[in-house]
């Protein structure tokens, strides 16, 4: 059974409840013939759903309702709590005419909002999202670790699974995915609502919601009366509302932002650092001593250093902000202390006395005296040209990296902005440790990992959002073509082909399904000249993706990977734990061997190795397509792929 009762699966029920039930048994061709009209309607619903990015969202209400209310909410936002009775009234008054979809939008200044969201997603994995969400919103003043656990116990969750899920990478990625949807539609505060694409902001009174809902019910039913399916009608209303000034135009007017998925070159230079000499992960922090958020994140950094030990190095760079008058003098004082070998001690004193920094030079000298510094040298160094040059170098680097606010972090070159909770750092650190260990296993010295990563990283910032495409930009490109170890990976075409295409994909990713269709169309025309390789890259947000990848490799062990792959994608929207044995039987695989491989996780290490190679090549999402070691895109159309292959073969 899938971990999440996804929004997509529920949306499919609008016109195809028979499809979902039928996909669990029977022969694929017969199922398709039996439910073809419903399947077409469901396809429209999936397309409409993709428009809003609701593939994993919690949903309640009538699946075939003409009106969809999407709520963007933060669990620590008092207005989000205040609007809940209004939403309950809407459900009661409009009944089967509305359905509700919930997206998480934790605000950065509300420290418990993201942990609460991850806990709610873990409850959703056990089909208890709405019960758990209600407990959170009814107890907003009591959000803490102990209560997250107590509420899970109160509604009877499997506690081992709950705790594992809420601390897993995939729940954090789910929150990030919801935030990306919010960014696309220009949503900044909470609560915020899209009603068939029409924007309603804030905890509005019932009548304000009701007038919009009535108009949408009438407009959608009119389209259905003209012969449209509910999915097509929803898509039409969505298009019209966005075109007439709903949420999407606002998102297109927003300025672009640096892409957090891009790995950037962040040199260490002469900056102060602490941690292991052979650290696998380096955090470079840009900070200002008068910034309260820079002070607030210190315990988080201390906890990270304790957790990761010698695997983590922290580097400090100065980013004094113009409106904080004592931030530059404080930075000069810290550099002067660094020159005497006591940067981190002085650094701590500055933040401990942040409220007194307005005293200026007398405070800086008193703190220096507390540490027993040579005061003549300290005063000279504070005003020296060398210190000025150090500050200028840090601020110019911050400007080049578009690190305008503080605190601003780069974790092995990947951007993280603000005083994020510990788990926000850990998600990136854990991923990068896996990448670094892969480099070490291939012969890179531990002390050279950061230098190696930086040699591959980008030097200019890629901007996304605003007028950029709504889908995430492609991952950062290494400077040189990547050499993949494809030994044992599913492949077709000549082993000595001059052109090799390597695909990284996730079997539960809709865009991967589209690319699979493209590859099936293109590959037969190039089978004698091009080698096509499939690498597994299951994303953490869909737990069944790992199982699907293992099953596909188990089929590969019996020589039927490509046939098994096609069956998975043909039935992508109805995958469950029982699907894979059904596919294996359908292909006539040796079932004893197949079951042994699945039960023993025989191919799990291969998948881990595939992921590590992808991550080292800059893959952060799927699909990712590489031609002779250079990424050429994701779910690209057939003509674009053919053009790239023809050019590579000609050269």
Main traits of this protein?
Glutaredoxin, 651 residues, alpha+beta, 5-stranded mixed sheet, 12% strand
Describe, in plain words, how this protein is organized in 3D.
The chain is an alpha+beta fold. It has 3 domains: 7-253, Glutaredoxin (3-Layer(aba) Sandwich); 272-450, Glutaredoxin, CATH 3.40.30; 491-650, Glutaredoxin, CATH 3.40.30.10. The chain contains 29 helices and 17 strands. Strands 1-3-2-4-5 form a 5-stranded mixed β-sheet. The chain has a 5-stranded mixed β-sheet with strand order 7-9-8-10-11. Strands 13-15-14-16-17 form a 5-stranded mixed β-sheet, sandwiched between helices.
What's the layout of helices and strands?
Layout: H1 7-22, H2 28-34, H3 36-52, E1 58-61, E2 67-73, H4 78-82, H5 84-94, E3 98-104, H6 113-124, H7 129-138, H8 145-154, H9 159-166, H10 169-184, E4 192-195, E5 198-201, H11 206-225, H12 230-243, H13 248-253, E6 257-258, E7 272-275, E8 281-287, H14 292-296, H15 298-308, E9 312-318, H16 327-338, H17 343-352, H18 361-370, H19 375-382, H20 385-400, E10 408-411, E11 414-417, H21 422-441, H22 449-456, E12 463-464, E13 491-492, E14 499-505, H23 510-522, E15 530-536, H24 544-556, H25 561-570, H26 579-586, H27 591-599, H28 604-616, E16 624-627, E17 630-633, H29 638-650
Parallel strand pairs: 2-3, 8-9, 14-15
Antiparallel strand pairs: 1-3, 2-4, 4-5, 6-12, 7-9, 8-10, 10-11, 13-15, 14-16, 16-17
Helix pairs in contact: 1-3, 3-12, 6-7, 6-9, 6-10, 11-12, 16-17, 16-18, 16-19, 16-20, 21-28, 24-25, 24-27
């Amino acid at each position: 059974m899938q971990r999440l009762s996804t929004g997509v699966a529920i949306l499919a029920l609008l016109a195809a409840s028979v499809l979902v039930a039928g996909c669990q048994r029977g022969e694929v061709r017969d199922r398709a013939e039996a439910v073809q009209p419903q399947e077409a309607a469901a396809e429209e619903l999936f397309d409409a759903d993709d428009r809003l990015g609701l593939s994993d969202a919690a949903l309640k209400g009538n699946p075939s309702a003409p009106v969809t209310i999407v709520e963007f909410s933060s669990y620590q936002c008092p207005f989000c709590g205040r609007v809940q009775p209004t939403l309950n009234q809407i459900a009661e008054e409009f009944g089967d005419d509305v359905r509700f979809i919930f997206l998480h939008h934790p605000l950065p200044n509300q420290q418990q909002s993201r942990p609460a969201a991850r806990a709610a997603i873990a409850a959703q994995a056990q089909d208890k999202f709405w019960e758990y969400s209600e407990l959170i919103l009814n107890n907003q003043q009591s959000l803490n670790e102990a209560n997250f656990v107590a509420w899970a116990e109160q509604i009877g969750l499997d506690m081992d699974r709950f705790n594992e899920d809420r601390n897993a990478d995939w729940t954090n990625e789910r929150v990030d995915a919801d935030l990306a949807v919010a960014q696309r539609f220009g949503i900044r505060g909470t609560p915020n609502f899209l009603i068939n694409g029409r924007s309603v902001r804030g905890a509005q009174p019932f009548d304000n919601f009701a007038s919009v809902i009535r108009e949408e019910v009438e407009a959608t039913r009119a389209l259905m009366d003209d012969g449209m399916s509910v999915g097509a009608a929803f898509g039409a209303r969505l298009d019209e509302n966005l075109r007439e000034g709903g949420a999407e135009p606002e998102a297109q007017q927003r300025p672009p932002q640096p892409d957090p998925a891009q790995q950037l070159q962040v040199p260490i230079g002469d900056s102060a650092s602490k941690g292991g000499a052979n650290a696998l992960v380096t955090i470079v922090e840009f900070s200002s001593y008068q910034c309260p958020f820079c002070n607030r994140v210190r315990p988080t950094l201390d906890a990270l250093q304790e957790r990761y030990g010698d695997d983590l190095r922290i580097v400090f760079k100065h980013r004094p902000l113009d409106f904080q008058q004592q931030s530059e003098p404080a930075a000069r004082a810290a550099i002067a202390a660094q020159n005497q070998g006591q940067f981190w001690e002085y650094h701590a004193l500055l933040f401990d006395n942040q409220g007194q920094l307005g005293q200026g030079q007398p405070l800086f000298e008193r703190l220096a005296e507390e540490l027993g510094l040579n005061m003549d040298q300290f005063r000279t160094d504070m005003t020296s040209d060398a210190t000025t040059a150090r500050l200028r170098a840090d601020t110019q680097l911050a400007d080049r990296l578009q690190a305008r606010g503080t605190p601003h972090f780069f974790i092995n070159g990947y951007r993280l902005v603000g005083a994020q909770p510990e788990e926000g750092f850990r998600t990136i650190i854990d991923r990068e440790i896996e990448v670094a260990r892969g480099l070490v296993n291939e012969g890179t010295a531990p002390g050279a990992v950061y230098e190696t990563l930086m040699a591959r990283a980008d030097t200019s910032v890629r901007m996304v959002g605003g007028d950029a495409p709504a889908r995430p930009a492609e991952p950062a490109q290494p400077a040189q073509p990547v050499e993949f170890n494809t030994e044992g990976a599913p492949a077709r075409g000549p082993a000595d082909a001059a052109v090799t295409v390597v695909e990284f994909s996730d079997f539960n990713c809709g865009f991967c399904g589209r690319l699979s269709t493209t590859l099936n169309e293109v590959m037969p025309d190039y089978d004698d000249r091009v080698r096509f390789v499939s690498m597994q890259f299951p994303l953490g947000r869909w737990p069944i993706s790992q199982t699907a990848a293992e099953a596909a490799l188990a089929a590969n062990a019996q020589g039927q990977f490509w046939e098994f792959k096609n069956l998975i994608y043909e039935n992508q929207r109805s995958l469950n734990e029982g699907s894979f044995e059904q596919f294996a039987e359908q292909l006539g695989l040796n079932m004893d061997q197949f079951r042994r491989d699945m039960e023993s996780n025989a191919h799990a290490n291969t998948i881990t190795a595939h992921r590590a190679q992808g991550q080292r090549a800059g893959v952060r999402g799927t699909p990712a397509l590489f031609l002779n070691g250079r990424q050429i895109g994701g779910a690209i159309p057939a003509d674009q792929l053919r053009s790239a292959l023809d050019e590579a073969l000609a050269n």
